[in-house]
């Protein structure tokens, strides 16, 4: 019973801590502040995970937390999450001081993303990692059983951690965060100077166990990348496994510094590399490709390069590097929006056909201009290659056409993609013939794990919709959660809508959210669904909801599950007076709006290579 009660106790302590921090972040009298501070100290001793992310505590509240952490050792705390709390200089300085005095030696994960830390806060954090001079260590405090009051009197607190701090000479080999393995600093605008001071702490070996470093969206340029490259080449970051530098203006110069750091062979265990939207062009792609081909990234499992300018020459170079067989462990390849075009797609097809990336689980080639020929060769390669591990295939916006889709359908029908969970084929000029082959594979039960299927903005006509509706009605895809057929103009939309409604009324187990351009006069059909599903029951059913202007969405009918609500909607639908005017209805509708999940905002397929802890 104890292991089950412990998480509940920690959640209770977390709620109490949040309330105390919000109180301490306001103007209260001294006696109440002292009482709240003491209560906070007591609660901090109970937690191993303190998740305060997105709690709107504010900088003053986080500063109060930092002061509490300074006032006593917290030997059990392993994870501290402060993301999205408007942490600024004061809050970051207080937290950094708590680290610097050695009170958080058990810390393994520090999550500070989406705050206002900036250069000064990053400087304070770096000095905290290095340690504060003339302060009692945790081991000293615990050996003598110091009370909180004695600790408060004994501790020599710095007034400004960001300036003039010296490392402790008395500790020698002591590390303030010896077990810290994960640092999240996404979206904090630390800039080049912040990257430099942080790199100096890494280069000095002050974070010896670092495995995951996320510096996404921090305005880091070539100079900051050069400093980080020196830290990587120093040998003190040899344990690094995941590095995310996406959405930073690194340019070619910064990418070159990164590649040189890895060529030093001091960091050989990197499994995840994020370089999305960093200004990578074809020349930079060639430099990175040569490093891949030389084997400096032999452990690489996830490579994120979306929204760069790789181009067809860079795409060919990257594919040839993968073809060398030096990156056999690759599971995620994200090249979205890089315009590798037909030439790049063909080279990538050769890699897949030869089985050089047999563990691939996610392949994202959205908006790459592969065209009909490139798409066809790529889909044919899925037949020859061993792609049973593939779970995510995104080919949106490549204009691959029916021929490519038919080749893909054959790969599906022959069972080469039996593990597929997500298939995105929007904006590809696919018609009835292409969809028919996919439906045939669905009916044959070749996609038992499929959860998401997107065919938006194609030439489907009503025949395609009817065929897909028949598959839903027969329940041949039991795990399907999301089917999107938006902007698929052509044919008789009324017949398509009727077929989808029939699928819902015939298959009571259907939970798929269908996104379709519902005709305005399908209200009567919706009333039939309500009558069949919600007559006096409280069953939760996800059904398509018509909306003015043929806007496509889905709506959960939990709020309409009572008999009175159901009858009211039926009467309104029959009279053609279904209204969207009430505020509660609009609010519920907004909450149920869904979109195609992105490779960056869905739950990772395998926690073993996403390093989310």
Automatic annotation (TrEMBL):
GO terms for molecular function: GTPase activator activity. Transmembrane segments: none annotated. The keyword Phosphoprotein does not apply. SMART domains: LRR_RI, LRR_TYP. It comes from Riccia fluitans. InterPro entries: Leu-rich_rpt, Leu-rich_rpt_typical-subtyp, LRR_dom_sf, RanGap. This is Uncharacterized protein. Pfam families: LRR_6. Keywords: GTPase activation, Leucine-rich repeat, Repeat.
């Amino acid at each position: 019973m104890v292991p089950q009660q412990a998480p509940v106790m920690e959640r209770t302590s977390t709620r109490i801590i949040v309330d105390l921090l919000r109180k301490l972040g306001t103007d209260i009298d001294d006696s109440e502040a002292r009482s709240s501070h003491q209560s906070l100290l007591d609660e901090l001793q109970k937690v191993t995970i303190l998740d305060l992310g997105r709690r709107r505590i504010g900088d003053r509240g986080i500063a109060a937390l930092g002061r509490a952490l300074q006032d006593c050792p917290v030997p059990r705390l392993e994870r501290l999450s402060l993301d999205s709390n408007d942490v600024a200089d004061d809050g970051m300085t207080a937290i950094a001081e708590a680290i610097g005095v050695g009170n958080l030696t058990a810390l393994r994960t520090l999550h500070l993303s989406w705050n206002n830390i900036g250069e000064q806060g990053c400087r304070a954090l770096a000095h905290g990692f290095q340690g504060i001079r003339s302060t009692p260590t945790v081991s000293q405090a615990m050996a003598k059983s110091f009370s909180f009051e004695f600790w408060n009197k004994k501790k020599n607190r710095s007034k400004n951690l960001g300036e003039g701090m010296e490392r402790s000479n008395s500790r020698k080999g002591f590390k303030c965060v010896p077990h810290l393995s994960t640092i999240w600093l996404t979206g904090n605008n630390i800039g080049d100077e912040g990257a430099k001071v942080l790199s100096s702490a890494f280069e000095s070996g002050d974070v010896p166990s670092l495995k995951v470093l996320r510096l996404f969206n921090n305005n880091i340029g070539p100079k900051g990348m050069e400093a980080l490259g020196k830290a990587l080449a120093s040998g003190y970051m040899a344990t690094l496994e995941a590095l995310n530098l996406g959405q930073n203006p690194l340019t070619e110069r910064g990418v070159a510094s990164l590649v040189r750091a890895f060529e030093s062979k001091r960091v050989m265990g990197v499994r995840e590399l994020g370089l999305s939207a960093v200004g990578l062009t074809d020349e930079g792609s060639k430099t990175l490709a040569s490093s891949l081909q030389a084997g400096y990234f032999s452990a690489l499992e996830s490579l994120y390069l979306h929204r760069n300018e790789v181009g067809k020459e860079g795409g060919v170079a990257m594919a040839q590097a993968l073809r060398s067989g030096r990156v056999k462990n690759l599971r995620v390849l994200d090249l979205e929006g890089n315009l590798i075009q037909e030439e790049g797609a063909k080279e990538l097809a050769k890699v897949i056909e030869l089985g050089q990336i047999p563990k691939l689980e996610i392949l994202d080639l959205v908006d790459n201009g592969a065209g009909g020929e490139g798409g066809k060769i790529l889909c044919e390669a899925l037949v020859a290659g061993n792609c049973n591990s593939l779970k995510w295939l995104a080919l949106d916006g490549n204009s691959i056409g029916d021929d490519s889709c038919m080749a893909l359908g054959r790969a599906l029908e022959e069972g080469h993609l039996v593990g597929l969970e997500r298939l995105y084929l929007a904006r590809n000029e696919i018609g009835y013939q292409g969809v028919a082959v996919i439906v045939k594979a669905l009916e044959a039960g070749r996609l038992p794990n499929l959860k998401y299927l997107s065919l938006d903005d194609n030439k489907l006509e009503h025949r395609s919709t009817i065929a897909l509706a028949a598959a839903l009605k027969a329940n041949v895809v039991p795990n399907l959660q999301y089917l999107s057929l938006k902007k698929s103009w052509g044919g008789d939309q009324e017949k398509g809508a009727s077929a989808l409604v029939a699928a819902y009324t015939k298959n009571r187990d259907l939970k798929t959210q269908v996104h379709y351009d519902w005709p305005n006069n399908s209200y009567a059909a919706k009333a039939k669904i309500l009558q069949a599903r919600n007559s006096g029951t409280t069953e939760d059913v996800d059904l398509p909801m018509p909306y003015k202007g043929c806007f496509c969405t889905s709506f959960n009918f939990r709020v309409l599950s009572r008999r009175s609500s159901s009858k009211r909607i039926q009467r309104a639908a029959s009279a053609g007076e279904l209204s969207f005017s009430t505020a509660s209805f609009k609010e519920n509708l907004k909450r149920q709006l869904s979109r195609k999940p992105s490779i960056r905002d869905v739950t990772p397929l395998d926690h073993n290579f996403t390093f989310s802890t």
